[in-house]
Amino acid sequence: MTADLSQLVKAYDVRGVVPDQWDESLAELFGSAFVQVTGARAIVIGHDMRPSSPGLSRAFARGAAARGVDVTEIGLCSTDQLYYASGAFALPGAMFTASHNPAQYNGIKMCRAGAAPVGQDTGLADIRELVESWLTSGAPASDATPGTITRRDTLDDYAAHLRSLVDLTSIRPPVSHHRPSKESASRPSHLKVVVDAGNGMGGHTVPTVFAGLPLDLVPMYFELDGTFPNHEANPLEPANIVDLQKRVREEDADLGIAFDGDADRCFVVDEHGDPVSPSAITALVASRELAKHGGGTVIHNLITSWSVPEAVRENGGTPVRTRVGHSFIKAEMARTGAIFGGEHSAHYYFRDFWNADTGMLAALHVLAALGGQDGPLSQLVAAYDRYAGSGEINSTVDDQAARLAAVKTAYEGREGVSIDELDGLTVTAQDWWFNVRPSNTEPLLRLNAEARDEATMAKTRDEVLAIIRG
Description:
Elements: E1 14-17, H1 24-38, E2 42-47, H2 53-65, E3 70-76, H3 79-89, E4 93-96, E5 105-112, E6 116-117, H4 124-137, E7 149-151, H5 155-164, E8 191-196, H6 202-209, E9 215-220, H7 242-251, E10 255-259, E11 266-269, E12 275-276, H8 278-293, E13 296-301, H9 307-314, E14 317-322, H10 326-336, E15 340-342, E16 348-350, E17 356-357, H11 359-371, H12 377-382, E18 388-389, E19 393-396, H13 400-411, E20 418-420, E21 425-428, E22 432-438, E23 444-451, H14 454-468
Parallel strand pairs: 2-3, 2-4, 3-7, 8-9, 8-10, 13-14, 13-15
Antiparallel strand pairs: 1-5, 4-5, 5-6, 10-11, 11-12, 15-16, 16-17, 18-23, 19-23, 20-21, 21-22, 22-23
Helix pairs in contact: 1-2, 1-4, 8-9, 8-11
């Protein structure tokens, strides 16, 4: 195994191909390094459904226990279930998952007690350096009394905690989207929701979280299978929600929900099967959280729609704009005491959930919002979907800095245009804005554009793409 882990240790996690880039022996070293860097006396570990996850998780536990640390294994879980355990037990944690990446990949998401993230600037670089040194010269023996490794089931407690945060007792189907049956033409007693777990951890958590709620649940791909036989577990890609959209229309359902592989992100489609943008979900959930808390600060990254800060202000809140990335969102939430945060990538963060991201709690908010009024979901979210957006468009470039500079030069000095470089380059005018930012891992520039109407958005998008692609 190479002593250079630069391709394995990313900005926020460990991720690579098993066994080519890492294996159980390396996982054991990561376990030892994690507890040494964090100073942990006890930790909690969970894993997803990938074939390599149980073995990697056990190896990490051995490495930690060898340093005198007590380990609680919660077994199969979603990433936000691991965050729950880290928060509820006040323990550092490690989650073995590669989210939506193909089956041959696996990774580790690590956190300090209370689900505080471990990234490059908060311990991950030190963990990498320590493991690299041990690969070169060998790990020193520990004279500590080995810690214990015990099992604990947290699924019921996790579900109960989430349900304690959202009132779901009065949800009911919308009047305007009732489904007359052969037996009765009256309004149904349950919301009908199609859930696509993508053979990921949503298939493990949804049945327990949704149990007993007034829902008619139509499950899709709930079988845990880390080879992802039906589609990639990344609902951000349109091809991966085609089955969900079709099923929602076939079932005449009120909505559809899709989860990614480790079930920490949720994506929503309306009663027509049309996608609801994560920005609209951010604005919707922010409005509900502001009502619940009587105001407060809401964090949003700079790629979210203009609709988000507008909705926050309209509901008595204070919007705070940040860079893209969960470490920035969580840092700002801690600094400002924000009640909620949202990203264009469908990560949703809650103060009531240790500032961690949980797609399941966002999904419960959507169900409660829909079931608490009489209109269909398309009508409910229209209030938060006010502008025309391009979505994220990737362009492969030879020189990221040069192409970014070319875009900046093209717009500098234009009347009524402002430029900021909080994250890449954001250019804003009265009727439109766009952001171009480089990928940290690939030779790509990512463009997001938005405008007050579709024609203006298309014109802006095409103009910027012409500069980027030269």
